[in-house]
Amino acid sequence: MTLNEIECTLRELRLSGIAATLNTRVMQAQASQQPLLETLAGLLQDELDRRHSRLTERRFKQSRLDERPTLGDFDWRFNPKLPRQACFELHTLKFIAEGANALIIGKPGTGKSHVAKAVAYQATLQGHDVRYVEADTEFARFALASPKEQTALMRAYVESDLLILDDLFLARRISDAAAELLQAIVHQRYKRRGSIVVTSNRVVQDWGKYLGDATMGTTILDRLMHRAVMLEFEGRSYRLKEAAARLAIAAEA
């Protein structure tokens, strides 16, 4: 069997990782008189690396994250009072194994979404099924979906290892249907011990007002906070800082 035939066979067997590096590995083995088992081990590792890369990329796409942020690219010096240690503890993902939640509450522009997305991205890299949604926008999308689409969406909200509800109550008052959806999601994930990370500009004491139902607000918070950590973000807005920097550059131009 020729090298080309071997490559065709590998692709037919869906061993694209080996097929992609076969020529290189063969030349490497010939040049260094590499033992057969060592060459084979290298080819198998190539296949594993290719499959892991594809799986990681698939998880990222399914998560619906729009970027790949990390805690390392976050400017902690700008707001030194932020709960840095708690953010890195969340980044270890131990809370997912424990079925715990996290509420990241604070002023706009202080980095809540960045931290939540960094945790979500790290979870995809570690093999978790993640679902990221901008809460108010997603509730509106759900309301317009067909019954079949709603069933699929609800399954994704409930069955993922980690659900990120970003900017909850951004529009303050949400519809009755959205409030009922939020309650259902929290209730179902509570029963499954599925972790939720919520970011919001609104203090939790006012959630009942934004839901239009104090009892519902208490029920949701009771389940969210039973096993949860709360991170409070205060300080100056990163977005305003960046906007000021852009204006300063424009003025100098």
UniProtKB/TrEMBL annotation:
Q: What is this protein called?
A: IS21-like element helper ATPase IstB
Q: Which family does it belong to?
A: Belongs to the IS21/IS1162 putative ATP-binding protein family.
**Known NCBIfam families for this protein?**
IS21_help_AAA (NF038214)
Q: Which SMART domains match?
A: AAA (SM00382)
Question: Where, if anywhere, are coiled coils annotated?
Answer: none
User: Is Nucleotide-binding one of the keywords UniProt gives this record?
Assistant: yes
Q: Which Pfam families match?
A: IstB_IS21
PANTHER family in alphabetical order: ATP-BINDING PROTEIN RV3427C IN INSERTION SEQUENCE-RELATED (PTHR30050:SF4), CHROMOSOMAL REPLICATION INITIATOR PROTEIN DNAA (PTHR30050)
The UniProt keywords, alphabetically, are: ATP-binding, Nucleotide-binding
Q: Where is the AAA+ ATPase domain?
A: 98-231
